Amino acid sequence: MAPPYDVARLRRRFPALASGLAFFDGPGGSQTPDVVADAVRATLAGPLSNRGDLTLAQDNAERAVVEARAALADLLEADPQGVVFGRSFTQITFDIARAMAKRWGPGDEVVVSRLDHDGNVRPWVLTAEAVGATVRWVDLDPASGELAMGSLDRAITPRTRLVAITGASNLIGTRPDVAAVAAATHHVGAWLYLDAVHLVPHEAVSLRTSGADLVGCSTYKLLGPHAGVVAGRPEILEQLHPDKLLPSTDAVPERFELGTLPYELMAGATAAVDLVADLVPDDEGATRRQRIETSMAAVATHEDRLRDRIEADLSERSGVTLWSRASHRTPTILATFADHDAGAVSRQLAEHGINAPAGTFYAHEAAQRLGLGPDGGLRIGVAPYTDDADVDRLLGALDETLR
Length: 403
Ligand SMILES: Cc1ncc(COP(=O)(O)O)c(C=O)c1O
Known about the structure:
By secondary structure, this protein is α/β, with parallel strands linked by helices. It has two domains: 7-32 and 289-402, Alpha-Beta Complex (Aspartate Aminotransferase, domain 1); 38-275, Aspartate Aminotransferase, domain 2. The chain has helices at 7-11, 34-45, 56-76, 89-101, 122-130, 149-155, 178-187, 207-210, 234-237, 263-277, 288-315, 342-351, 364-370, 388-402, and strands at residues 22-23, 83-86, 109-113, 134-138, 140-141, 146-147, 160-166, 191-195, 214-218, 228-232, 320-322, 332-337, 354-355, 358-359, 377-381. It has a seven-stranded mixed sheet with strand order 2-10-9-8-7-3-4, with helices on both faces. Strands 11-12-15-14 form a four-stranded antiparallel sheet. A two-stranded parallel ribbon has the order 1-13. The longest helix has 28 residues, at 288-315. It is globular, with a radius of gyration of 21 Å. The termini are far apart. The site of pyridoxal-5'-phosphate (PLP) has 13 residues, from helix 4.
């Protein structure tokens, strides 16, 4: 039997936790472990030049790229040759949308959802509109917080070329039935683009089994540095031709990666994946992917228990509305308050050294559909390093603030 999840052991890896702050802002970006910062520093400080095989400096750059593709391929259960690195999920998604839109025209249709972060909405809407393609919307049911599957059936037609959907809402945590979306998408021969930015920190996501054709995440949401990654099936990436410089390679995945790669961030991303794989120690020779699956299952159990504690407390309080209601969801809670605005509650918590921001968090369509004001809600996110003491502090500070 695998040893239990040891949150105290993990917490020792985070210099930021020595500040005494409690971090419930993981959905916006996680804190960084020492091994990740060390890998970034060592890459920059070591001999480093552009990729090649002539000098140690070239080898180091080459190794950073090869190892990062292998690590992210394990994280997303994808082919390393389909792993595209970029500055952020948003940037890569815009680039891929522009490349796909070269194949679209009037009569073609693109499907987006009102549950999604705008990073998986606007790139598709703008590029579709620019070539005269039609945009269709999948709705969010505000009462249940679920993706409205009936509207998905209406939105997908034989003219659909691309469906862009989130694996989990960064606003209310909803995890839609991706397998059902994939089945409907593939039934009409379209491609599925999965935004797993908010799902990857809470589940071992798999390009292979999810049914997605391309899946994206941001390494800074799961203990890594500020970069984005999209993994696609290489045979799909081969069909896309992004704008690129004439002398730069036309090989996949490099042709999607404009300019020089961020070698130090790639080394940091590899270190983050290795740390995730090691969250539950294994001495039985499992592969890194298997260890990621074991670790993320343990993370989910740990995080869901803490989420249940917070939700149980908040649901007992009068004047608190909890918006995270979907049957299947991440440990991300959005709350509003009858007698306080969410921004004021967030400021009060900050005075107690507790980071839990208020807002709509770029989930523009979802916030509108839920009828949240510009202030949005207070978002409380549980991360792999959150512990019971953090939750005690949060609940105590909320008690003081809301009383
Ligand atoms: C669900 C989701 N999608 C997309 C994004 C955008 O990611 P990036 O900052 O890497 O562009 C975020 C960031 O918060 C997110 O939570």
